[in-house]
Amino acid sequence: IAICISCKPAPRPVTKSAAAAGPSVRATVVTVRTNVNPPNRTITQTIAIAGDRARDTSEHDVWRLYDVKKQTVTFVDDIEKTIRTESFAELTKRRSATMAGSVAAFHPRPKLTRGGAKKTMQGVDAEQWVISAGTYKRELWIGEHPASPRDLFAMMQASERISSPLAPVMRDVDAALVAAKGFPLIDRSELPVGQAPVIVDRTVVSIVQKDVPESLVTLPRDYRDVTPKKPQ
To answer: What is the pTM of this model?
Structure first.
């Protein structure tokens, strides 16, 4: 279960369409470096934040555009050429309902500890969060950087697809992450696999201002909107 919850597929480079030449916009670019050991592999990805909108540029084919002012997440499908927008509140409610499912009692329930430990990272104070269950451990250092929206990480967590039937064991921890304010400047997991743990270490290595293609944080105008209509 630790692998299902904490390991994501390696992000692939941004597609040519996402990085195509065109008008640019000033943005905050958060660079996250992930080390996976074994097999001692390093992956680098960026999150672009322009005004009220943000996007993880490692997502491709199907990606999410976050609007922190409107509190919405838009799912963009470059294959089907569709867009679908949901509110943060709707996503949180549905995720909570899924997490409320039952799981056999012998599965360990992860525990979240916020011990008050703090350290300075990227110029801000970050607080330590520790999630543990048996030999599984995940350590996050969450800080509120002025260049990153307070709800961005929570919106990313709430809109993440749940794929494991054992996910409900994370119910209490997941609820805390969805309510978190700030962004993990370090996110380190130790996953028990075989004789030695697999360590996944994600670290924010830089937060800078730079120009990015405007298309990177803009919804395609010619895509079909498949957002469900609300009852009148």
So the answer is: 0.87
The residue whose two tokens read 């697809």 is: 161
pLDDT digits (tens, 9 = 90+) for 73-117: 999 999 999 999 999 999 999 999 999 998 888 888 899 999 789
Beta bridge partners of 56: 47
What are 205-225's pLDDT values in tens digits?
A: 999 999 999 999 999 999 999
Looking at the predicted structure, is the pLDDT value of residue 1 above 90? no
Span 117-145, mean pLDDT? 95
Q: Which pLDDT value is given to residue 232?
A: 66
As a whole number of angstroms, the distance between CA 100 and CA 83 comes to 28
3-state secondary structure the chain: CHHHHHCCCCCCCCCCCCCCCCCEEEEEEEEEEEEEECCCEEEEEEEEEECCEEEECCCCCEEEEEECCCCEEEEEECCCCEEEEEEHHHHHHHHHHHHCCCCCCCCCCCEEECCCCEEEECCEEEEEEEEEECCEEEEEEEECCCCCCCCHHHHHHHCCCCCCCCHHHHHHHHHHHHCCCCEEEEEEEEEEECCEEEEEEEEEEEEEEEEEEHHHHCCCCCCEECCCCCCC
